[in-house]
Specification:
Layout lengths: L20 H12 L5 E5 L4 E4 L4 E4 L1 H7 L3 H13 L6 E4 L1 H7 L5 H17 L3 E5 L5 E5 L20 E5 L1 H4 L2 H4 L2 H12 L4 E2 L6 H5 L3 H13 L3 E10 L7 E9 L17 E2 L7 E2 L2
Parallel strand pairs: 8-11
Antiparallel strand pairs: 1-7, 2-3, 4-6, 5-6, 9-10, 9-12
Length: about 280
C-alpha cells in the first residue's frame, strides 16, 4: 500500500479556503432581497438641513472624506444595501465584513472592521452590539447623523433620496474608485436629474469636500465613462472681466443614470445651484 502525504506546498483543502471578496459581497447583497437591486440613500448623508430656514450644511460623508476613511464608507454603503427591513440591523461575523473590504487575515480584519464601525458609530450613523455566536449586531441609524432611528426614505415630502445600484459592486467600482471618486459619484447621483452641474468651488460649502478633491473625483469618473460632459452652461458673474462665466453640464452614464423617485422626478432640465450673485442662463 502506498501512503501519500500532503507536502508543505500542497494547496489547502477546499473547505479551508476563505471565501473571496466578490463572493462575500454577492452573498451579502443577495441577503438583502431588494427587488430593485439598488440602495436608497438619503441626501442628508451628503448634505443636511440646519434649522427651519432651509439652510444646508455638509453631511456625515464630509467627515469620512476628511478622515480619508475609505473603509468605513465602503462598509456603510454595503450595510445600507443589506439592512432593508425589520429593525434595519444585520448580525454577522467581523471576518465576513473584513472579506468584503478585501482583508483576509482574521486578526487584522477584525481590528480593521472594529475601527471602521467605531468611526461610523461616532458619526451617529450606526449602533453596535454583541450578537450571537461571536457576531456583531450593526443597526443603521438615520443618515443625517442625528442618532435617530432609521426609517424608509421617501415616505413623505421633504425627504429626498437617491439610489445606488448594485452594479456599483457587481462591476467592481467599490474597488476601482478612489475616495474622492466615490464621494463625487454619490453627490452626482443625489442630483436626481439627467443633466446637472457640479461647481467645484462650491463643494466645500455645500458638501464639505475640497475643490481639489471634487476635481479629482470628477476627472476620475469621466475617465471611467461614469460621468460625461454633455453641454456647457453660461451664467452671469462678476468674477470675470466680461461678466460671463461658463461651467460644464454633466450626465451620469448607465448603470448610474438616476431613476425616477417621485418628488423632484427626473426631467430633461439641468439641476443648477448657482453661486451667490450668479444667474445661470438657460
Amino acid at each position: 500500500m502506498t501512503t501519500t502525504q500532503s507536502g508543505l506546498n500542497s494547496p489547502p483543502a477546499q473547505a479551508q479556503i476563505s471565501l473571496g471578496q466578490p463572493e462575500t459581497i454577492k452573498l451579502i447583497l443577495d441577503r438583502s432581497l431588494r427587488p430593485t437591486r439598488a440602495v436608497p440613500i438619503r441626501r442628508a448623508f451628503l448634505q443636511k438641513e440646519v434649522g427651519k430656514g432651509g439652510t444646508k450644511s455638509p453631511g456625515a460623508m464630509a467627515d469620512l472624506v476628511r478622515r480619508s476613511a475609505k473603509r468605513p464608507l465602503d462598509l456603510y454603503l454595503l450595510l445600507s444595501a443589506v439592512t432593508s427591513g425589520g429593525d434595519f440591523s444585520v448580525t454577522e461575523w467581523s471576518t465576513t465584513w473584513a472579506r468584503s473590504v478585501g482583508i483576509f487575515d482574521e486578526t487584522a480584519g477584525t481590528t480593521a472592521v472594529s475601527r471602521a464601525w467605531k468611526v461610523l458609530k461616532d458619526l451617529g450613523l450606526i449602533t453596535r452590539a454583541r450578537g450571537e455566536g461571536g457576531k456583531s449586531a450593526i443597526t443603521k441609524l438615520h443618515e443625517d447623523g442625528s442618532g435617530h432611528p432609521y426609517t424608509v426614505p421617501g415616505e413623505g415630502l421633504g425627504d429626498p433620496y437617491f439610489q445606488l445600484p448594485f452594479e456599483y459592486w457587481d462591476k467592481g467600482w467599490h474597488n476601482g474608485l478612489s475616495l474622492p471618486g466615490k464621494a463625487m459619484l454619490l453627490i452626482a447621483s443625489s442630483q436626481r436629474k439627467l443633466k446637472f452641474t457640479l461647481p467645484q468651488e462650491r463643494m466645500p460649502e455645500w458638501y464639505g469636500i475640497s475643490a481639489d478633491s471634487a476635481g479629482k473625483g470628477i476627472r476620475e469618473l469621466m475617465k471611467h465613462d461614469i460621468l460625461v460632459q454633455v453641454d456647457d452652461e453660461w451664467f452671469d458673474t462678476l468674477k470675470t472681466r466680461s461678466g460671463r462665466g461658463c461651467r460644464p453640464v454633466y450626465s451620469l452614464w448607465p448603470p448610474f443614470t438616476p431613476r425616477a423617485l417621485g418628488e423632484s422626478a427626473i426631467d430633461d432640465e439641468t439641476t443648477t445651484e448657482a453661486p451667490s450673485g450668479a444667474t445661470p442662463k438657460e
